[in-house]
Structures are given as C-alpha cells and as structure tokens.
Amino acid sequence: MAKSGRVLVVDDQPANTEALAQALGPLGYEVWQALDGPTALLLAKERLPDVILLDLLMPGMDGFEVCQKLKEEPETRLLPVVVLTGLDSREARLKALEAGATDFLAKPFDLVELEVRVRNLVHYRRLIQDLDDAERMLFAVARAVEARDEGTGEHCDRLSHLAVWLGQKRGLNEDDLKALRRAGYLHDIGKIGIPDAILHKPGPLTPEEWKIMRSHVDIGVGICAPLRTLQPVLPIIRHHHERRDGSGYPDGLKGDEIPFLARVFQVVDVFDALTSSRPYRKALPPQEAVRILREETARGYWDPHIVEVFARSLEEAGYQVPTLALGGNRKVE
User: Where is the HD-GYP domain (predicted)?
Assistant: First the structure.
C-alpha cells in the first residue's frame, strides 16, 4: 500500500518522537525520528520528507536554528515545518515564523488536529513537487530543442552562466538573477513548434518562412505561461529579439520599452552567437565579438550602458568568464 506521506519528527525526548510515530504510523505515514538538530538537518537533506514536526526547546541547536538552517538550503527550503511547542508567547511564535515555520501545534496537541495538519501539508508538498516536475520537464524539452537547433546543449549552459554573470555585474537581485538563469534554457523553447525545414534551411528564409520563425517567441511564452513560477521569465522569452531602434520583433519595441532583463539577456545572446561556430562561419574571437556588439549598439540595436558593462567586465577579466554554478572559470572561445 502506498504511504500517505513521509514525516520527520524532531524532538530531544525519545518518548515524544515515539508517541508521534505511533500516532502517525497506523494512518499510513512513514515516520523518521531525530533527537537533535544536526541529525534532523542531515535526514531532511538526505530523505526530503513531506512534513517536518519540530520541537523548539532542544539542547545545543534549538528548533529556531534548525528551522532557519532548513530554509537557507535550496534542497530543503520548501519543506513544510510544523513547530511543536509548549511556549504560548507571542514572541516565540513570531520568532518561529521569522525562522520560516509553516504552522504551529501547541503541546499537548490533539491527535485529530495533528493528523489534519499533517495531511494538508503533505497535499501542499505534493502540489509543490508537481510544479517542480513540470518545470523539470520544460527544461528537458528546452535542452532537446537546443540539441535539435544547435547540435549540442552547451549553448543553454553558456547563456545561463553569462547572463547571471552580467546580471551580477549590474548588481541585480536574486530574483532577477534566477530569471536570467532560467531564460538561458527557456528563451528559445518555442522553436519546438518550428518545422525542421525552416529551422535548418541552409539558405535565406522567404517572408512567409521568416514569419513562422518569428512565431517561436509566442509559442515559447504559451508553453511557459501556465507555470506561475516562470512568470518573470516570460518578458525575456518574448522580447529578447527586440532592438532598441524598434526594428526587432515581435512587438517592435523601442529603447526602454524593452523589458530590462530582456535587454540584459540579448547582449549575452548575441555575444554567444558571435563566439560560437556555425555551419557557415567559424567562431569569432571574443575581442572581435565585443567590437561588433559596440558597432551594433552605435547602430541602435542594443542598450549602450549594458553593452559597456559587459564589454568592460570581459576586458577586465581577461575574457575569463566565471561558470558560476559549475565553479571555476571558462575561457571564452
């Protein structure tokens, strides 16, 4: 029989953890027990429970610190944490909320209320997992599209790293950096709807074929729009082919009408295209790519301030671009 959910119980009193295990076990829950904070953090990271029941008053690392550390780690920050406490003070509750607690249960707690809280939070956790699965599926589709279009999936990785690197140079916040990182993989996902005959045509596209090719931004937005977590990425997907002089697509936006993150992203997109090999030409040296970027900026294509930040940062780094998530540096070839 499938388990109702997985619960991690954290309390320094073995009698308390055992009582919770005996209450939840017959209801179909798989229950793990931890008697101290460090063990709880280890189990949470290794097993990713659906719900954590956490006592506040423990020796050494107390429940407040455990909760705070759980919320600091990407792997565990979305795990629901129910605080079990005999403290009924407003200060304790506020402190637990500030640490990231999801809910409270006062000791001694009612077993029926415990089961309802756990069941609801398991349901919430499963919804989050479904969203994560949907996102992972979209990123897998994006990589498949990239392999179909470029021959490798490395273009996505390079764009993601370069976009975040430039965003950091511009002092952007974490939410904006996350949108840029995701855009590196999702910006051209709409090409899944473009026929191979057009996508791989060796010669110039006809006006009708070019119209179909341009539609990939609308297709991409349509694919990603249902996921609320991807809303910040949509303006980048739609507008990374705009130009500052209004000659781009799909909306012919001009200047600052182009969303800022799209303006950041299009600079690294053009740079990566220039410094990557194509069937019709070899990759350009990074210095030549920077020269072309500046030339096109003077022609009215790209945001001059963003281009200069990018160009100066590359020059100051000796064209060594940090690969961020992978660690180390990568020489731009």
Answer: 130-326
